[in-house]
Amino acid sequence: MIKAGIIGATGYAGQELMRLLMQHPECEVEVISSRTYKNTNYDQVYGNFMGIASDKLVDEEIDEISKKVDVLFIALPHGIASNKISSKILENTKIIDLGADYRLNDLSVYEKWYGVSHGSPELIEEAVYGLCELKRQDVKKSNLIANPGCYTTCSILSLMPLVKNNLIDKGSIIVDAKSGVTGAGRALNLGTHYTECNESIKAYKIASHRHTPEIEQELSGVTDSSISISFTPHLIPMNRGILITAYASLNKKYTYEDIKEVYEECYKDEQFIRLLPEGVFPETKWVKGSNYCDINFQIDERTNRIIVLGAIDNLIKGAAGQAVQNMNIIFGLKESTGLEVIPAFPI
Amino acid sequence: MIKAGIIGATGYAGQELMRLLMQHPECEVEVISSRTYKNTNYDQVYGNFMGIASDKLVDEEIDEISKKVDVLFIALPHGIASNKISSKILENTKIIDLGADYRLNDLSVYEKWYGVSHGSPELIEEAVYGLCELKRQDVKKSNLIANPGCYTTCSILSLMPLVKNNLIDKGSIIVDAKSGVTGAGRALNLGTHYTECNESIKAYKIASHRHTPEIEQELSGVTDSSISISFTPHLIPMNRGILITAYASLNKKYTYEDIKEVYEECYKDEQFIRLLPEGVFPETKWVKGSNYCDINFQIDERTNRIIVLGAIDNLIKGAAGQAVQNMNIIFGLKESTGLEVIPAFPI
Amino acid sequence: MIKAGIIGATGYAGQELMRLLMQHPECEVEVISSRTYKNTNYDQVYGNFMGIASDKLVDEEIDEISKKVDVLFIALPHGIASNKISSKILENTKIIDLGADYRLNDLSVYEKWYGVSHGSPELIEEAVYGLCELKRQDVKKSNLIANPGCYTTCSILSLMPLVKNNLIDKGSIIVDAKSGVTGAGRALNLGTHYTECNESIKAYKIASHRHTPEIEQELSGVTDSSISISFTPHLIPMNRGILITAYASLNKKYTYEDIKEVYEECYKDEQFIRLLPEGVFPETKWVKGSNYCDINFQIDERTNRIIVLGAIDNLIKGAAGQAVQNMNIIFGLKESTGLEVIPAFPI
Amino acid sequence: MIKAGIIGATGYAGQELMRLLMQHPECEVEVISSRTYKNTNYDQVYGNFMGIASDKLVDEEIDEISKKVDVLFIALPHGIASNKISSKILENTKIIDLGADYRLNDLSVYEKWYGVSHGSPELIEEAVYGLCELKRQDVKKSNLIANPGCYTTCSILSLMPLVKNNLIDKGSIIVDAKSGVTGAGRALNLGTHYTECNESIKAYKIASHRHTPEIEQELSGVTDSSISISFTPHLIPMNRGILITAYASLNKKYTYEDIKEVYEECYKDEQFIRLLPEGVFPETKWVKGSNYCDINFQIDERTNRIIVLGAIDNLIKGAAGQAVQNMNIIFGLKESTGLEVIPAFPI
């Protein structure tokens, strides 16, 4: 059994991780920690765990915790993990960081977009960007996984085949993204007060969301040129789910079949990527509660653009599920262990 | 492996059953049928099953199907199953009927509340009312299980200890029930059109809902007298979940602890019943996606009433989950097999 | 033109009042105040007022403000108004208090349920409980109106004819109430964080909600005996609306028509009370955005109970609308002035 | 008083129109008609009108009706109005058609996108596209107004200043649109069944929605070249509201102020267009229940794109409100008569 610890177990991503790990057949949760709720029983923080996990949350003593576990998941706001993780800790345990601190290869890009200085720049190079479908070979060998952002995962998986195969004008990419409110976490905020976001939609962090450089880095990584995109996230009055609608100009005329073939070639062995049949498009409801990413596209012949749609459960494939998938890879388990759940509906 | 069939696999309860059975370690779904969608692939009807279940739905030929399976789940509107099931079919397979046809012992009560004549009254006596926590000994021996209604399950489990132990005035029971919209099924109806039930609440079938006699029958069954209740269901703008708020006059002054003890005694061995700590009350969100029934109560000292609250996931403990629990009992499996899932949140 | 001021203009009730008063043909808003947002333009606090009200919010200097206005609306949490209002202020202006401080006639009941001491007990006797349909003669003559609570308004209007005409067992009243989330206000709270209350239902303050003594006081007031009720509020995942489902035992057998006549007699001249046709029951959607209270009932013949349903828009008839109605009464305007709006749907 | 009739008074747009017209100080609704509900009282079809409008709905005898009214609003699915309207009818009354039949100038474009043949092509030329802010001079003189589509209104108003002033690459326009579910009407459909669209988001009619040619026609009309756009609508789990997020490449480097000036110049006299302050972006909640269109934009300097956001209430500025605005123009009333309502919040 893999012994796991969770730092930041009381945020939504931490909680989803707790749920997945407790149900994972090869893993047991050894330590859960939370600064805010230390010394509280877990089921007092999350009533769904009533009678299932009444373990006490401990303080965030990462050094201590790292000695007790084979893998340590970190689910903290950006800027904190990089100050807590060190080479020494990486000797004790493997780290899967659900935060943003190790996702960007370029320190200056990180510091520009996040507005903080990085606590352990020397570790950036060691870190592997854990988008499993693209990086599983590197993940296997790493002690420090930067688990991708939610918008990022969905955007990259949806666009990668087009970029890699040079089918689109790389300067033309626009990602219009929509997320449920869990993406904003459990911290109180007027914008996520029920009556303020229910029955309304808005865009936010227009042209300035921090997942932008992450998407650009990874898309650039599958081609030979540097890619800039426009990225606009929207807040949707629903609990879970991300849908991205991506637009790009095709380099020449292609048929649906031409491009379908390219996607199939890229993803033919991917259990968690579902390429939908022609004319059937992703809806977040079909992936809820699962690690799937559903993808399909439409060619707009009048403008010769391609419109790609991707959907994930933001807390699973966009956070905790992918973190478990990374753990499975690292420990040589079947990649889908503990993740083979059928999406629930209507839920 | 238990071979299972589902008649009516494309309603919401049928679909949830499909999901649970496909994930059940000791069961495999052999046949799925639907009149409306016969010859269609299952994942064309429910996109969550895309790439997971593309089996073709067959017509509702119950005779044929009953020969192929060890257990046959029936999820049809009332009045149909009783015309399809016969002694002969019960020789072929075990039946777990999620509909109402065999729930009421008294034929005249059935015909009065449902307004139809019963197709196989001779089988009523054979049928066992499959509320697992109350009837598991009978379930074990039966070939024909009447799986309880959703409101019923939650109401009976919440009130039973009070009635059985004679703590309340049996003429004083009022159940004010609230259900999510999946309770109304997938059939189109103005009342469940999104913009007609979103952002509103209403009561319906006031003093006339068909789950009333079912609750009365089972509560009467644990005591020596005939019980009549007032039952009012409400439609809540959410997908899943039932909350019942039940009121009754206490027979004398009791403390919280007095009554807590009675509940604990009744349910101490029940894995799926969670008696919440004092002052913590059921919320449907904490049981979503699971087979749990959460219960707690408050004594209103000023009026000497008890207010009992119970919450379930209507499609699981209120339908498909309990059906699986019944299957587990019948086949001698651990009762929680395939049902030990932690409720998901926020979902 | 009546000059009005609003203390606490940035809570939801204050904001709804602002909207109603700005659209009122005989009134103009002279001063708006807010402790939290003083010196901020109103449309920066509420974007719906963009370009419509960019007035600056001033501090809550009630003495100063009271000199400038003909009527002063106070929309503050309980316990504050009673410390701000004095006889001197009542010489300057008329007060309509949307809070709870002057609603209960009995000081000890107030202090017991609210757990604070009252700041101006000498004014309690002067205050008139402003449930317009019951008290309009008293309202006319008063300088200090205690505007009723939201649950209270709906409960009293729904039950009053039964109590007044002695049709029910006065010890048998149970009110099961359901409210949208605006009832909890704009202050941040985990319980009203979007992802915590969306897609779920819960009861809260069971047998202890502060609107209980208010309902009891007013129902007792229309009969000769002291009435105790059981009251359970529930939080519904929707923005607006209150539905109450009230249960009581009938004193003898009555037909629907018998009781309908009693309601019609009570409310025949009431513009804002809509007695629905037999078999049609209140739904909160039909009153949204309006000052209406929709009422109907069903007799449960099997138990000889009556089940009364009432629906209001909690921010209008349950708060700001009724406050305006009170203002109209005080100033001798047509009672419906500024309130004759058709409910909007679907909204 | 203007005498108005409504053909198709029982759809959502027809109902909203009914509400606006009944509250309009210079208009009275003389006839309401509905094929489905003929001979039914209006308040039996829409409970919000209970006690307010119990008029009987008549059959759709447009000839008869046209003789009785000064203006006739038609709110029918596309393809019907063009078969009902004739020159003769236009001699009797003015027509404001909320449907699509007369919106497109080019018959072949209409027939291609709508897949039906037009019933009165000879009237197309007479019809004026009633986007008030652009066409009020023409509206004044016309007997036949084609009231714009909901997505269209919001898209054109948001983009027009950029196109007209030649600030963007006209081949680069992408409109990613989001609508509440009222946009789909009251007709039953699996896609708008509560539990099928609640808690989910999807795109639909990708690159094929019929509002596309309408947007293209009107944007082309303010410049010298033919414009093609990519348009993708999404269904949002909320009742009302449209948000459009439009992307375009700027022709050169501009500052926020440069472009703000252009918008201000275009809309400085427009009461219903609110240009939000820098950094404040449209949210559908701020326009609900009103005729406003809120607009703002952000320059994405890294890609030199502009991202324009626009929000309207789809049933008001996107349908019934604009229809009333057109009526006001035609009859020489103040354009905002009956429309000067403050948006309601939270509702």
TrEMBL record, chains A, B, C, D:
Gene Ontology molecular function terms on file: N-acetyl-gamma-glutamyl-phosphate reductase activity; NAD binding; NADP+ binding
Q: In which pathway does it act?
A: Amino-acid biosynthesis; L-arginine biosynthesis; N(2)-acetyl-L-ornithine from L-glutamate: step 3/4
> What family does this belong to?
Belongs to the NAGSA dehydrogenase family. Type 1 subfamily.
Query: Which keywords does the record carry?
Result: Amino-acid biosynthesis, Arginine biosynthesis, Cytoplasm, NADP, Oxidoreductase
Name of this protein: N-acetyl-gamma-glutamyl-phosphate reductase
Q: Name one GO cellular component term.
A: cytoplasm
What would be the name of the gene that encodes this protein? Answer: argC
Entry keyword Methyltransferase: no
- Residues annotated as the enzyme's active site: 150
